[in-house]
Structures are given as C-alpha cells and as structure tokens.
Amino acid sequence: MASIRRTLSPYNDRSHQNGGNTSPFSLNSPSHKHNTTTRFASPLSTFSVGHLAPRKGHRTWRRLVYVCMLFFLLGFLLGLAPFGEVEDVRSRDFSFEVNRPPTLDVKEDIVVDKVELAAVEEREVVVKERFDYDVARKQLIVVTPTYNRALQAFYLNRLGQVLRLVPPPVLWIVVEMNEASTETADILRGMGIMYRHLVCTKNLTDIKDRGVHQRNRALEHIEYHKLDGIVYFADDDNVYSLELFETMREISRFGTWPVAMLAQSKNKATLEGPVCNGSQVIGWHTNEKSKRLRRFHVDMSGFAFNSTILWDPKRWNKRSSALIRQLDTIKEGFQETTFIEQVVEDESQMEATPFGCSKIMNWHLHLEARELGYPKGWLLQTNLDAVLPIE
Asked: How far apart (Å, rounded) are the C-alpha atoms in residues 47 and 57?
C-alpha cells in the first residue's frame, strides 16, 4: 500500500467535528484531493509569508532609527566639546567703524570709558533725584499775593515756571483780592503744579497794604488745614534761583539769607539781610537810616519758617498761643520785623543759609512803573489781556 505525503491542512471540517463519518485524512475527502494538487499553495504557507515578513522589517527600521539617533547625539556632544583655544567674546569689539586702526592705546580707551560712564551716571542721578517721588523731602508752601496790573500775567508765568523746576512736593498758594479772576485761574491750571487759589475779602477803603491781608489770608488757610512744610512769601515780581528753594528744605525752624535790592533810583544793588558766621546770624545789612530802628533787617522774601509754628506752638515751646499774623497798623517797612518777632525770640533761633551767607539767591526788584502807558489805540480790557488796535 503506497503512502502519500502531504502537508497538514488547517481546514477543519465541520461535519467531522460534529461527528460525521467523513475524515479529512481519508483519500476520498475533498481536502485530500485539493492538497495533493496544490501542495505548496496551502493557506498555512500563505499566512506565514504574509505576516512574518512585515514584522521582521519593522524591527529592522526601528533598529536603524535608534542607530541614527545615537550617532546624532554623539555628534552633538562632540560639537560642544572644546578643541583648542576658546576666544573670549567679551573682549571683542563689535563696533561698526570703517577703516579702524588695527591697534589702539589701552590707556586712552580706559580714560574715555571712565569719562563716559561718569557722565551717564551723573545724568541718571539728576533725573532720578528730580522725578523720584519716594525721596523724603519737606513740602514747600509758597505764598504769592497778586493784584490786577498790566504785567501780572508775565510775573505769574515766570514764577510758575521756576516752581515747576523745583522737586516736589511744592504747594503754591496764590491770593487775590475780592474775587478770583478767570485769567489767574487759567494760568494756575496750566502750570502743572499743585496750587490753591484763595481770595481775600476786605474792604479796600480800610486797607493800607493789600499784601499784608493777602498773606494773612494764606496763613489762616495753612493754620486751619494744618499744612506741614516750610512757608515762604514769594512776591510775583521778584527773581528767584532754584538753589534758594533747595536750601529751604534744610530749615528746621526759621531760616534767613541776604537779598539784593535794586531800584530805579539807584545805580547799584544793596544788600538787606543777615551777616553770618557759618550758620549763625551775628548782624544785619542795612543802608537806609529810616529802617535802622527795626529789630530784624530782613526783606519779606529773605526768610522762611516752619508751618507748625502757626498751629502747633507747643512743639517749639512758645509761651504765647496768640495768632501769628502780619500787622497793617504799623509803619510801612516794619511789617517784616514785627512778624518775625512773633516767630522767634532772637538771632539764636535763626538759621543762616547758605553756609556763611556767601551767595545771593534772590533779588527784590523795584523796576515797575506806576503808570504803564500803552500805544494809542490799545485797550486793556482785563487785568491780564491786551487787545490789538481797533481798526
């Protein structure tokens, strides 16, 4: 009996599994006939070739990717490793100069760098000091009485521009008589500084010196609101330096300094104020015989004082609690000394500024004409505005 070799077919006959008589291994079975003719095209061989080949290729590509990544990482690390001398980038000059000499003097470069850095540092300090609001500074309370006249706008604008340059805090108290004019209010609003526009309501027929009552109105305002700072009476027609306002912040109680007086009737300036020995007041400058009877020879713009003297006298051990005001009933030219006598007792309570009174920081000018004439056809409608000629 001849034997037949064949491959095992994965085919499962349902009838055989269900208990049929036909066997898949018999010669009469359909599967046997099919497998003898197509021995090498069995479903098993087709299944093996179709699934094992892609799996082997997938592993090969994965291995190639890992190898490429390994070589890339190795090349990256080798690129970072130093081979030879490393040049310091900070020592190189990246300027865009044309035809630059190959060699430079090192000492000259160092000197130029130091000068440039010093200039920049100084400029930064000035800007920071001017605009740094965190620096603790004493407030300056500048009191300015003003009245209607042809050059009022010029004087107020000039003084306002000076106060704008003073580092804050600065409070400008401007006092007018009877009513607040819209022209003055417009100037104050346009200055960009902190201000208060006050009005002194007094009967003009009973007033000898309007400036006395205007300053008293400002003193009442400071006392009522308990404003803390250094009070300074600054008339709008005087000339002031920035150094004056800077030195005021060094005043503790009462400070004074010499003032240059200039008038039309005199061909030279005269001094009025203290004679100093360092920061101590030891005498007074005076040139007018009519004023030699004054206790203190000081101009109204030649002193400043602490505002707490007005509303906190116990702090300064003052015996009298009377109001500190300027007096209108006394002779002209004695308002300054009578007011100062209410603030301090003698020269020992004064502070001379600057040190040694060696500088003139403001000028009291008496150059304005009483009657200012206008060209024919010009009209002065208000206190601050002049109108062009009417055609």
From this structure: 17
- Nearest-CA neighbor of 280 among 305, 253, 256? 256
Q: Tell me the average pLDDT across 109-116.
A: 35
Helix extents (H) in the chain: 14-17, 30-37, 43-80, 106-131, 152-164, 182-191, 210-225, 242-248, 308-311, 335-343
Q: What is the pLDDT of residues 179-217, one digit of tens each?
A: 999 999 999 999 999 999 999 988 766 677 899 999 999
> Is there a contact between 142 and 248 (Cβ–Cβ < 8 Å)?
no
Q: 297 is written with which tokens?
A: 């020879």
305 with 253: CB under 8 angstroms? yes
Q: Which of 34-43, 57-66, 125-134 has the highest mean pLDDT?
A: 57-66
Name which residue leads in pLDDT, 165 or 92: 165
Report the amino acid identity of residue 119.
A
Beta carbons within 10 angstroms of residue 159's beta carbon: 23
Check: CB of residue 44 under 8 Å from CB of residue 35.
no
- The pTM for the full model equals 0.63
Question: Are the beta carbons of 286 and 298 closer than 8 angstroms?
Answer: no
Angle at CA 228, nearest 5°, toward 197 and 330?
65
Alpha-carbon distance of 338 to 235, in angstroms, equals 19
Could you tell me the end-to-end alpha-carbon distance of the chain, in angstroms, rounded to an integer? 150
Say if CB 300 and CB 336 are below 8 A apart.
yes
Which residues on neighbouring strands pair with residue 351, listed in sequence order?
A: 255
Widest Cα–Cα separation across the chain: 167
140: its two tokens: 């300056």
